[in-house]
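I have a small job for you when you get a moment. Would you make up a two-line entry for one protein for me to read? No commentary is needed, just the two lines. Write everything out right here, beneath this request.
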Amino acid sequence: MRFASLISAAFALALSSGIAFAQAEWAEFVDRADHFTVNFPGDPAKTDTTFTTAKGTKLQGHVYSAQDRRGIYHMTVIDYRNAKDEVGTAIEEAAKMVRAKGTVKYDGTGMLDNHKSQRITVETPEGRRLLSEILVSMDGRLYISEADTTLNAAPPAQFQASLQVLDDDGVRIRYRAVGSTERVR
């Protein structure tokens, strides 16, 4: 009986060590310049990008990318502050680009800290699953998170659920209600 307990305890310790190791590779990443934080598997690479709106306006942005054994994770931030008249269509334009990547399996409006968002799951022709969340902050930044994993991989909740929009001081922006400017402190 004691031998069985010892084996169970050793197994539990080994399992918890493995879980801790798996979790240790993921960490919170903060970018104060682009006003967001998200969990990534390691330090992401940052590249510049140009986004062309439906009206033809060219907007500057950044793509942050990291990967682990399950997939590739991207956070794209596009600066709409010089195109405020186009920010109203930003989510739909980005959603259209995500939908074009494959067969849409889920497409619905969501709320992230009461920022209206679009959540989309797409299965690509390459047999991969793309989980995406798209939102626009009140200050005019478009955020597109994309987790690209195999179909049989567990959904990357530590990435998808970790996105937070930050203010100029690095504080999380959470609104009391959709469309409100009153923040939760």
Summary: Residues 26-165 form a domain with the Protein Transport Mog1p; Chain A fold (CATH 3.40.1000.10). The first helix runs from residue 2 to 24. The CA atoms of residues 109 and 118 lie 5 Å apart. The mean pLDDT is 86.
